[in-house]
Amino acid sequence: MKTTYKAILVATGLTVALCGYAIINGKEVSINGVARETASTPVYKAAYSNTTVTAADFEKAADNAVPSVVHIKTVTKFKQTRGQGRQDGPADGFSGDDFFRKFFGEEGRSFQRPDQQASGSGVILSTDGYIATNNHVVEGATDITVTLNNRKTYVAKLIGTDPNTDLALIKIDASNLPVMPVGNSDDVHLGQWVLAVGYPLNLDVTVTQGIVSAKGRNIGINTKGSAPVESFIQTDAAVNPGSSGGALVNTNGELVGITSAIASPTGAYAGYAYCIPSNLVRKVIGDIRKFGSVQRGYLGISMAPDQVDDKQKKELGINDDVDGAWVIETDPAGAAAAAGIQKGDAIIKVDGIPVTGNASLSEQVARHKPGDQISLTFVRGSAEKTVTVTLKGKPGSFASQEAAAIQSLGAQFSTVPETEAKKLGVSGGVQVSDIQDGILSDQTNMRPGFIITKVGGITIKSVDELKDALGKLQGNFQIEGVYPGNKETYYYGINDFNK
């Protein structure tokens, strides 16, 4: 992760295995240290041998991986700007703020913010210089440089990003680069030895070892995407700020994940790191390289949370005996609904691969593009069924999500009539009235009467369009519009919007 943004973390571990044996009828039989009963030998003794098992050797894997992991440094340059656009609402007939700005000479004052420097890691995926890293490592950067393990430094250009998975692709002008082979993350298992390779804390390349401690983790960290996908491999290999974008490697020296985030109260090593599975990396980076953006297919469903209490389970019809992702809503125009998937169904397999929860389903579907056909196995009542679904190119629109989003703003909204819009010099909009407790009152000083013309850059001409736009937005965005009788455009920032 880049030093100024996220930290990544993992705890190392070393285990020594002991073998157990039983002496049965004069023969030594391995029983793994646990007494076992047989019909022919009702009485026996178990004993541990003094033989120790040699610990795994990581030298070959490290030698293979280190040359393919690079140090990324970024600079974000801020342009000199002048204050423009208003953040406050107009006073009745007179703005005292305008008076004081002019009196103290602040009108039109220039502001210069210092450049921001940061660093992270990346993985070479082609001999001609394509490198995978995290979106948050290069996000907003105006200059990107890459230093190889052999100390050679190159200027890199950004090819594309995907905030939904926190992945990005950059390229340097080079040839004959050492490429890291990409492994199959579906073959990664709990307890498996892995290495984390990266450039933490602006140090030289660093290799740490640990095990895979969990799979399919969703920690809610990809908030900048409109449809986040999180199905992280969790490991306890030690990593720190600067390791983002680095490699998670198996003992064969194959890439099985890209380091993305940590769970830590301090932002530094505390025991848990989260890595994007290599199979998802392969799809996303491949799309960015070929198309410039990710071609992602969608089911068009809303899923029940993985963790719900007994009361919610009863309301949603969740059966603890079924392991899968529970559908609580479908987009009527979505792919799942077209294939007959309904509220209350539990999706348990995608193309025959078991679904262990929401993160698992999201990852499996995110590996496909619009138009791809996938096989979904689901449980309805006590019956198990399998259908073919043709994925679509939009996430889906859900009535409950849209209603919750607009309700969270805490105001009443009405579509501006076309004749009134013409008088205001706008193509259309939504007027805000009766502002009460909610996001608008908490985060802005918007006043009743304000007419919204854009939300998050999306043009708004009706309440339905406002609902639709809010249903697609998450994180930070701006509400743009005008006040009747005032031609000036006003902007209100909304932070950490979460439906």
Number of domains: 4
Q: Please identify, by name, the CATH architecture of the largest domain.
A: Beta Barrel
**Termini separation (Å)?**
27 Å
- Major sheet attributes: 6 strands, antiparallel, barrel
Helix count, DSSP H or I runs of 4 or more residues: 11
**CATH topology of the largest domain, which one?**
Thrombin, subunit H
The fraction of residues assigned to DSSP E strands is 25-35%
CATH class of the largest domain: Mainly Beta
Show unreliable segments: 3-49, 81-107
Q: Give the strand order, joined by hyphens, for the main sheet.
A: 4-7-8-11-10-9
Number of E-state strands: 29
Kindly state the mean pLDDT as a whole number? Answer: 81
- Fraction of residues in helix: 10-25%
Characteristic terms for this protein:
499 residues; Thrombin, subunit H; 17% helix; disordered N terminus
Kindly summarize this structure in a few lines.
Helix content is 17%, strand content 34%. The chain is α+β, with helices and mostly antiparallel strands.
Structure report:
The chain has 499 residues and is of the alpha+beta class. It folds into four domains: 1-12 and 57-77 and 115-295, Thrombin, subunit H; 18-52, no CATH class; 301-390, Pdz3 Domain, CATH 2.30.42.10; 399-497, Pdz3 Domain, CATH 2.30.42.10. The protein has eleven helices and 29 strands. A hairpin with a 4-residue loop joins β10 and β11 (167-172). The longest helix has 14 residues, at 278-291. The relative contact order is 0.11.
